[in-house]
């Protein structure tokens, strides 16, 4: 299949260890430039899974929103977030808050939801003085590098996400579901195959089982698509994990992951997953004004520790249904 003619005008810089990088026309209006080159950008994204656009000078929320909308007309409102975001309106959110000295390990945004973004957009308003890259990893390459026996188990059983909503760690019920009305939360959970239970102290516990391996809805490529390692207790820094266990107990952790049959995932498996991600990670330090496009099914992303201020805004586009990605397990309430 031939790419749009405008693709030929985009000079893609490919270097080992970095995502593909494009440079926008000097002085171009970011939304107009993106609209003019949309087909070409999406073609590069389809080929590589991620692309960084440099030189757009993105800084103003309205311009960032217009640029995101030029790439996807259906920016999603986030539901089931694991951490609270600031909502800037127009489908633009802050990055998920996370301790800046701790890595936010590789994951696919909302991979535990039945509807998730097919595309992720990141706009850097302020670059950190050191670190803080939004790194990416090819999910098909990660899948190919994992032990076949482990893959077969996850294909057969899926993975289980458990959550305990409280007012201290992670998103609150209202932030995750858009309401704290118990009946509305119950309706959402039933409609999205989430087992739920309100505790005597008012906290909400949920469980949801999802596929760990899916097929890309357009290319059909098999991808390791989940948040098994990122949201597992063994990825959390030891001192933070011990505090959470002492405070909430093993069954009350804000989030944790298990094999789909409910068995605990061994620490060495989590270490292996994170090591394979690291082997396939590419990164480019942020510069103010940068735009990063990520195919959320094909490509995992992370956020590395950093020093200094960091302001990266996020948009979620191309809403995608898990049912269109050939899940390996039936979606039922666990």
Automatic annotation (TrEMBL):
Gene3D superfamilies: Clavaminate synthase-like
Name this polypeptide is given: TauD/TfdA family dioxygenase
Domain TauD/TfdA-like: 25-315
Superkingdom, taxonomy of origin: Bacteria
GO molecular function: dioxygenase activity
Cofactor: Fe(2+)
Pfam families, sorted: TauD (PF02668)
Keywords carried by this UniProt record: Antibiotic biosynthesis, Dioxygenase, Iron, Oxidoreductase
Region called Disordered, residue ranges: 1-27
InterPro entries: AlphaKG_dependent_hydroxylases (IPR050411), TauD-like_sf (IPR042098), TauD/TfdA-like (IPR003819)
